[in-house]
Amino acid sequence: MVSDREGREFDRKLEEMGIRIKDEDSRKVRGEVFDEDTLLALYRLVHRKKISAIGGSISTGKEANVFLGEKDGKPVAIKIYRMRTANFKAMADYIIGDPRFAGVRKTRKDIVFTWTKKEFANLKRAHEAGVPVPEPYAFDRNILIMEFIGEDESAAPQIRNVELEDPEGVYGAVVGEIKKLFQDARLVHGDLSEFNILWHEKPYIIDMGQAVTREHPNAGTFLIRDIRNINRFFSSFCPVEAEDALVREVTGGSVRSLAEKDR
Predict the structure, then answer these.
(1) Superfamily for 156-261?
(2) Is 147 helix (H, G, I), strand (E, B) or coil?
(3) Would you call 29 helix, strand, or coil by DSSP?
(4) C-alpha span between 114 and 93 (Å, rounded)
(5) Which residue from 209, 203, 172 is spatially nearest to 191, judged by alpha carbons?
(6) Which of 50, 126, 170, 234 has the greatest number of beta carbons closer than 10 A?
(7) Rounded distance, CA 114 to CA 120, Å?
(8) pTM for the full predicted model
(9) Contact at 8 Å (CB) between 115 and 66?
(10) Which residues are marked as active site?
(11) What is the pLDDT of residues 51-94, one digit of tens each?
(12) Strand, helix or coil at 166?
């Protein structure tokens, strides 16, 4: 819990950095991001003109909060990983084995900073491959700045909270994006479910921090889990394809062939 004195000090530091608090929801901002690492990251991002304001909370997750921000008068999403409470051991399981981040030290700070960098890299890779994900703009330490998915400062809902007019068509679109992510971006999401797909006229895939390359030793296991989760959710609304058939469709073969494909 942040005291009034700490809150006033936080506001003063933000003002010194040129960061404007957008609304009266500032206490939520204080409570989640008041630490020196985050303040330093905020300072650097403001200095680089990546953000100009921070507002209320869009979502609260297990590892991070997402806030509404502003850059050049336009809304952005500011994802801040919590340094004190992030499950860095679970994060390490997705980082170790990824050749892009070999040699990272296993301290809490290094794991969280690497995770943020990894999510930026995964989003960039997926966005460039044409997968509908939030476009990443910048990152620093434990903060990621990315495209805001929504309208009029109202965030797009999770797909689980939407009454879909054509669930079978949306299911096909999601499967198509899993395939594009695997074949074109050469990534496996690793934790795909109805909780990290947003609906904004079409499905948008979010929370890409845990996504791994096809070379990762657990890529096959993660892919099967993603497909199983999507089938479980959509099976309540429409017919779904058999798990084995989907694996073959996505990979062009089978999970056993993943390692051979990337040698």
Answers:
(1) Transferase(Phosphotransferase) domain 1 (1.10.510.10)
(2) strand
(3) helix
(4) 12
(5) 209
(6) 126
(7) 10
(8) 0.86
(9) no
(10) 191, 207
(11) 988 888 888 877 888 999 999 889 999 999 987 766 667 787 78
(12) coil
Two structure tokens written together for 181: 């992510």
- For the chain, the distance separating the N- and C-terminal CA atoms, rounded to the nearest angstrom, is 50
Architecture of the domain defined by 6-151: 2-Layer Sandwich (3.30)
Reported in sequence order, the residue ranges of the chain that DSSP labels E, i.e. its strands, are 20-21, 53-60, 64-71, 74-81, 136-140, 143-147, 150-151, 154-155, 187-188, 197-199, 203-205, 212-213
Residues in the chain: 263
Q: How far apart are CA 185 and CA 178, in angstroms?
A: 10
User: Residue written as tokens 């869009």?
Assistant: 58
pLDDT digits (tens, 9 = 90+) for 109-155: 888 899 999 999 999 999 999 999 999 999 999 999 999 999 988 99
Q: Which two tokens stand for residue 215?
A: 């070379």
